[in-house]
Amino acid sequence: MFFRFNSLCRTRKVLVNCCKVSIECCESSLISPFHCEGVCAYFSTNSWRNSCESSRFDANVCAQLVDKDDFDGGGDGSVEVENLGGRGGKDLIIKGCGNFGFEGDDGLGEDSEDGGEEDDDGTDNDNDEEFRVLNLYDRNRKERGDINRVEVREDELRNPLVKEICRLIDRRSDWTPKFEGELRHLLRSLKPQQVCAVLRAQADERVALKFFYWADRQWRYRHDPIVYYAMLEVLSKTKLCQGAKRVLRLMTRRRIVRRPEAFGYVMVSFSRAGNIRKAMQVLTFMQKEGVEPDLGICNTAIYVLVKGKRMDKALRFLERMQLVGITPSVVTYNCLIKGYCDMDRTEDAIGLISEMASKGCSPDKVSYYTVMGILCKDKRIEKVKGLLEKMTRENNLLRDQVTYNTLIHALTKHGYGDEAISFLREAEAEGFCIDKVGYSAIVHSFCQAGNMERAKEVVNEMFTKGCIPDVVTYTAVINGFCHIGKVDQAKQLIQQMHRHGCKPNTVSYTALLNGLCRNGNTSEAREMMNMSEEEWWTPNAITYSVVLHGFRREGKLSEACEVVREMIGKGFYPTPVEINLLIQALCQQGRADLAKLFMDECLKKGCAVNVVNFTSVIHGFCQKDDLDDALSAFDDIYLSNKHPDAITYTTIIDALGKRGRIEEATEMANKMLHQGLLPTPVTYRTVIHRFCQHGRVDDLLKLIEKMLSRQACKTAYSQIVDKLCTFGNLDEAYKLLGKVLRTASVVDAKSCHLLIESYLKKGNALASYKVACRMFGRNLVPDLKLCERVCKRLMSDGKVKEADNLMLCFVERGRMSPERMQDLQL
């Protein structure tokens, strides 16, 4: 049934009454594909698509998307309309509606920054219900034709249409109706392979997913099946598992044939998000949909289980697939071998290689290389040689140059240069020529170990054999010289590179500058960086960071800030960690005001300043006892559209408590709890110290109760008793003894001992005796030597009965002999 746009406007009142949403129709505006980001707006009528092109929905017009965690429900974010009336379409029910939001909501409902949720406990579910999908396998089935999937060729990425669409997508922040019109026009001219190329060309997969949904809503356009598979393949390389799940559901609604590989892509995405349980539930959904499994989905399931360290379940899955008639391939066994190696079960991996031939599947070189890599890591060279012989003798897998390169790189990666050379000699004896990449790996290994003599021998050998070192080899040697402090030799090597016709690159110069900076010659490194244009090399972000940290370590903070400004001017932005290190260095010199100015400058120029940087500035002001500027910087956090964390609040609470402004500190702590931030152990220590310092015990106990209701701290009351004893408020400490002795732990005993000791110092042995008796009442035996001192003081004060009772408690518990008790009484 085709609805006119005017008819849609007439039904507006009905929609408001049924769904409690408002629709604002504006004929002069268009929907931006990256503002209207949900999966919604799928109607079975082309006229609704047409109306979407000439109307704008308000950001809050749609009902909240409700989605289930399982796979058997609806909820892909699309809109379904049931026509319960006649042709006029007056009785409409909107079943679900995506969120037509602006930046920050992709309409997926569940996708977070990491794209998925992690397993709660990481335990394995042994019911194996997911394995039931294997029962659908038909041993006698004939191979069906595959979906018309087309691999995206490299020339498709260079297609002018594809490049223009990618350009428009990159300018999505400046979108106008004109841009969308151009994009819509270009979209209808694209072939399916070119749409796939657009999806794969996006650096941010979330942008690709938004474009996929927007294109799906356009009039006179429908995604080809290969586009769905391309989108799932892109998402399988990310943690956007909820988006992959919704694309799979959308395929169901659009009646797209779903092959097992589509489900496999979703499984891999859930696996990357750390949710193995949900990944395996995809098989259950596959069973409900009646999709017959194949070897590919079985290999994916085993891969997911292996990555989740569920080897036992992976082996059970292997047995089950064999029972139904699915023959494992070498890929299947290689997944299991990799799983054994990841769990350091090398012998099991070797045993599986031995069993493969008896199961009708011969291992390939990847099977052996996987195990050899782990053996090289453990320096089990004899075992590696045995596997090499077995590979050749039993499986007719001839050793080649790739074999030896693999072993050389595996050994040099873990610093075993001498062992790598032995395999290099063996390769040359077999007639293979190891290239400069293998030699460079060995040189790098020796340089990392500081064995420069051996590194030079290998380089000279390269010249002898006509394998001229390249820039990578020279850079490794330069880095090695700098690593052992021989920067002058590194400089000479730079000059030798020019004489040998090898031009140093940015990495070479950065290694040299790093050596200069670590030797305290940062000014020289700065001059070399300034002369980079004359030497025909260009500093990168790492080069600037090396010089920046060199100045910071030397205390030349003004020069370091200048390097940051030049760095930003070149388009290289320092990380929040680098900014924070410089801020802390400024604050340690008592220049918190300059640190604040530096942070504001970085923020204005687009650097990624975070709450940790603000906290460092606030801490710097607090160290100078400049509380007003600290509170001002605290307010600036909100002005920068960021939110303070528990550490920020703790810093402010400590500064307020130090000034004796306990009411404001209490208010700040309550504000932290109100915002859902959990107090850290440092927060507890700070609050307890400052409140006890000023004798505000009642206020402290009220605040501690609130904090404990949000975040448990077993030692909170013990810390309070300790601080009260430190500040001499022993009566208040004794009142809290009942709460301290609730758990009767070792920490509680230490607090009680401190209270006993404090009473003794004040000459109140009777109070110490009472504390010891309360400890005995909780089956917590106090320190004997301390109680002997209490006993002597009691006897000197004429409290003989109390002294006898105290020692008798030790005798009854077998901690003291009666003879020792008599000696003390004498």
Short description:
This is Pentacotripeptide-repeat region of PRORP domain-containing protein. By secondary structure, the protein is mainly alpha-helical.
Structure description:
It comes from Daucus carota subsp. sativus. With 826 residues, the chain is mostly helical. The chain is 62% helix and 1% strand. It contains 44 helices and 2 strands. Strands 1-2 form a two-stranded antiparallel sheet. A hairpin with an 8-residue loop joins strand 1 (81-83) and strand 2 (92-94). Helix 22 (452-464) runs antiparallel to helix 23 and helix 40 packs antiparallel against helix 41. It starts with a helix and ends with a helix. The model is unreliable at 1-124 (pLDDT under 50).
Map the helices and strands.
Blueprint lengths: L4 H6 L1 H8 L26 H7 L28 E3 L8 E3 L59 H4 L2 H11 L6 H11 L4 H10 L3 H12 L8 H11 L5 H13 L6 H13 L3 H13 L6 H13 L3 H13 L6 H13 L3 H11 L8 H13 L3 H15 L5 H13 L3 H13 L6 H13 L3 H13 L6 H13 L3 H13 L6 H13 L3 H9 L10 H13 L3 H13 L6 H13 L3 H13 L6 H13 L3 H13 L6 H13 L3 H13 L6 H13 L3 H14 L5 H11 L3 H6 L1 H4 L5 H16 L3 H13 L6 H13 L3 H13 L5 H8 L1
Antiparallel strand pairs: 1-2
Helix pairs in contact: 5-7, 7-8, 7-9, 9-10, 9-11, 10-11, 11-12, 11-13, 13-14, 13-15, 14-15, 15-16, 15-17, 16-17, 17-18, 17-19, 19-20, 19-21, 20-21, 21-22, 21-23, 22-23, 23-24, 23-25, 24-25, 25-26, 25-27, 26-27, 27-28, 29-30, 29-31, 30-31, 31-32, 31-33, 32-33, 33-34, 33-35, 34-36, 35-36, 35-37, ...
Family: Belongs to the PPR family. P subfamily.
Keywords: Repeat
Organism: Daucus carota subsp. sativus
